[in-house]
Design a protein that fits this description.
The chain is built from eleven helices and 23 strands. By secondary structure, it is α+β, with helices and mostly antiparallel strands. It folds into two domains: 307 residues, Bira Bifunctional Protein, Domain 2 (BirA Bifunctional Protein, domain 2), CATH 3.30.930; 89 residues, 3-Layer(aba) Sandwich (Rossmann fold). The strands form six sheets. It has a five-stranded mixed barrel with strand order 9-10-13-11-12. The structure holds zinc ion.
Length: 414
């Protein structure tokens, strides 16, 4: 992509109303544009990041035999009345049509996915069944001011699993947990799992996946030797206590941000929508359901909160909008211009995703500042000084190296 053609350039000044790092940097670097509080447009660079995060999630979901579907975000009121969500969920967005029909905007999709499977499963042999989607969700937040961390509209992966026994749910939960931790690791995040009760409406357990970051809204106690993690507000434990789970390490304290969750829904939704199947002993049973969320746009915000310095963003490899940022210096010189263009074309032909700063009338200092702000992991420079080599620099290091094109390509695929 030629930077001169890119829609959504860097801004000289951060937005005045930005109170969080992710809002400030993502806007200034040309990734997002706030439409109103909690609602954002993703510009070309931002959409590439969002798509990359979704790709990682999708790859891992498919590996555990979850099947992707796409459900509507506009839901009939009737389904939400069946589950009592219409009156019980205060963050549910409600709409009225011109014929006075009422609708909800999806904040979770049990009200759609449960009736969807009705009639499509009839015995335990049809289970487990795991369906997921990656789509927009809506929450009527009273205050939405943490950039893309907590939006009124946000991009999310939600998976729903159906099981004939509690044991099978537990078995699948363990698989989902490992998969979640793998997803976060691929995206450069360390996540811990907290266990909490279902929040008063049910005795069922829910799990939260918390990423350790100073920008997090939760304070947690966690163990370095195992997954153990609790929210400090509810825990009787304190910093320095021995881990209650593995008893190997003392608990540490950190700030954290929730990036995923799992709910054991029990039989609630299958009872609400009257779904029965034939169980292993021939009796009629209601299946057990689990719900598993990952905030895709939220992860993008958390990554920026965690990976930044005074000059801008530092994207992890799997999330970055482009693999390399090629900067041409002195492009008013015909020889340098053609050499930089050739480098760009050759790297593209080697399947390197590359953002090419081809602007002629911009100073080197400004180009380097933009490259740091945008935060692609590798910066390449072609100039009069570089001769037949390319200057290679990683975003998080000071050191530069002079490499041949082949050596640059090799670096991408390590
Ligand atoms: Zn432990």
């Amino acid at each position: 992509m030629k930077y001169s053609k890119l829609f959504g350039k860097t801004l000289r000044q951060p937005p005045k109303d930005a109170t969080t790092v992710n809002h400030r940097l993502l806007t200034q670097a040309g990734y997002v544009e706030q439409l109103m509080a909690g609602v954002y447009t993703y510009l070309p660079l931002g959409l590439r990041v969002l798509t990359n995060i979704a790709r990682v999630v999708r790859e891992e979901m498919n590996l555990i035999d979850a099947q992707e579907i796409l459900m509507p975000t506009l839901h009939p009121k009737a389904n939400w009345e069946i589950t009592k969500g219409w009156s019980n969920i205060d963050v549910l967005f409600k709409l009225k049509s011109r014929t006075d029909k009422e609708y909800a905007l999806g904040q979770s999709e049990e009200e759609v996915v449960t009736p969807l499977v009705k009639g499509r499963i009839s015995t335990y042999k049809d289970l487990p069944l795991c369906l997921y989607q990656i789509h927009w969700k809506y929450r009527d937040e009273l205050r939405a001011k943490s950039g893309i961390l907590r939006g009124r509209e946000f991009f999310m992966k939600d998976l729903y699993s159906f099981h004939d026994t509690q044991e099978d749910f537990q078995r699948f939960y363990e698989i989902a947990k490992k998969t979640y931790l793998k997803i976060f690791k691929r995206l450069g995040l360390t996540a811990k799992v907290t266990e909490a009760s279902g929040g008063g409406f049910s005795e069922k357990i829910s799990y939260e996946f918390i990423v350790l970051t100073d920008a997090g809204e939760d304070t947690i106690l966690y163990c370095d030797s195992c997954d153990f993690c609790v929210n400090v507000d509810i825990a009787k434990l304190k910093l320095g206590d021995l881990c209650a789970s593995c008893k190997k390490s003392k608990l540490k304290q950190a700030k954290g941000s929730e990036v995923g969750n799992v709910f054991d829904l029990g039989q609630k939704y299958c009872k609400d929508f009257d779904i029965t199947i034939t169980g292993r002993d021939g009796e009629k049973i209601h299946p057990i359901m689990g719900c598993y969320g990952i905030g895709i746009s939220r992860i993008m915000g958390v990554i920026v909160e965690k990976y930044n310095d005074k000059n801008g963003i530092l994207w992890p490899k799997e999330a970055t909008p482009y693999q390399m940022h090629l900067v041409g210096i002195g492009l008013d010189n015909k020889d340098i211009l053609s050499k930089t263009h050739e480098t760009y074309r050759k790297l593209q032909n080697k399947n390197v995703e590359i953002l090419y700063d081809d602007r002629v009338d911009v100073s080197p200092g400004e180009k380097f500042a933009d490259a740091d702000l945008i935060g692609i992991p590798v910066r390449l420079v072609v100039s009069k000084k570089t001769g037949d080599k390319i200057e290679y620099k990683e975003r998080d290091k000071e050191k530069t190296e002079m490499l041949s094109l082949e050596e640059v390509v090799k670096k991408v695929h390590v």
